[in-house]
Amino acid sequence: MNNTYYGKLIFELSRPGRVGYSLPKCECEGYSLGDLGQEALRQTETILPECDELTVVRHYTNMSNNNFGVDTGFYPLGSCTMKYNPKLNEELAALPGFNQHPVTPAKFAQGSLKLYDEVQKTLAEIAGLSRFTLNPYAGAHGELTGLMVIRSYHMSRGDSARTKIIVPDSAHGTNPASAAVCGLQIVEVKSTADGTVDIEDLKPLLGPDIAGMMMTNPNTLGLFETKIPEIAKLVHECGGLMYYDGANLNPMLGVCRPGDMGFDVMHINLHKTFSTPHGGGGPGSGPVGVRKGLEQFLPNPQVVAKDFKDSKDFKDLKVYELHCDDESLGYVSFFLGNFAIIVRAYAYLLSLGKENIPTAGKLSVLNANYIKESLRSHYKLPIDTVCKHEFVFDGLLEEYGGDHHSPDHVTTLDVAKRLLDYGFHAPTIYFPLLFHEALMIEPTETESKETLDDFIAVMKRIAEEAKANPEMVKTAPHDTPVRRMDDVKAVKEPKFTFKAL
Description:
Layout: H1 53-65, H2 87-93, H3 110-127, E1 131-133, H4 139-156, E2 164-168, H5 174-181, E3 185-189, H6 199-202, E4 210-216, H7 228-237, E5 241-246, H8 258-261, E6 265-268, H9 270-273, E7 288-290, E8 302-307, E9 318-323, H10 339-375, E10 391-394, H11 412-421, E11 428-429, E12 438-441, H12 449-468, H13 470-474, H14 487-492
Parallel strand pairs: 2-3, 2-4, 4-5, 5-6
Antiparallel strand pairs: 1-7, 6-7, 8-9, 10-12, 11-12
Helix pairs in contact: 2-10, 3-10, 4-5, 10-12
């Protein structure tokens, strides 16, 4: 990379008076900034970089080349499902017909409303539920919305005593966070040695104050919760509802449905399961589905399809309207969510079709088990069983530097940093919290066998390095734009602004 731009901030490339644009002459004669009022004006000069266009282009192009994404390399983040986003989806979402103003009257947006309705019906069929809302902006937003549905259900029956939600100790961190935002108290249920919910620990927690229970299946260890029917029966008998965290829905596609297991409410992450963009803070989408009898509590507005009755020649034609229910929990977003993301998901659903949706789930399971079995000779496998779409190692085996008592102990963080030197993004590390050196890997169904084989070879090479030359791994990365950062200092003393020396 050219040293002129390498590792420098745009402010460091700035030169006084150098510009790459020419603004037109102001046409607002007779007006001045003072007319806005002093409270609307900056009191200090704006500090902006002054660069020519070529410098700006080169700077940000070089910056983008330093960024790692699913389009540049393998991204095996466990529990995040960094799946390829087909470019066809992007092209379809950019079609002019979908570029409508959010407040366009329903009669002029029939095509968009039909697409919305088709997506919610398709998700309902996949999930085994009655109806979905696509209004929430993200997975965690969907969690909160689903919990609000549960609270609205209990409040509609005058049962205000149900203020607690049960959450497994293996849950995603967003589960207790969403519950707390919803005003619910979190009650933790322990896992057994096999990584699944401990029913004996659950039973004493149930009572008239339980609003429901949140579960992820497969759980965050990538293991199928085999006792869900019994758990659902216990929670329902105490008057609670079952909430399904759909973040790990990938391997379940077309194989089994949360609604059939006894779940009442769930959310789905479109970016994880249905290939819409992921990361960077959005845009996202976290649709929420409910079983029959809970539809009225979904957020307003809802898209409703009605028969077109004005002409016998169009008896099969549907008219789509926006409906608001008096029992609804209210609004959780402006308009109908991130519509362009919903279009992308619809394109992916149509590309797979009913026939191939199960294949996606099965391939995600196959890929994960292939990596797990290939690396168990070098990394510690705490729970030795078939996984689903992801799995968790507990660091290196002792003979490869995983001995905590050795001065040459190589940690999961060291392995993750060394992976960067070989062009792979690190898996999720130190989550879930059930294992001290957790290394959580999810390959997704979109990766080829060649990519998986390359990743396996590198992981084995790092293990051999940790055994023969631990310092090489402990001081990694060596070939990245910046070396290993002081993570603690970065958190305690972050720098958000640039100040010239």
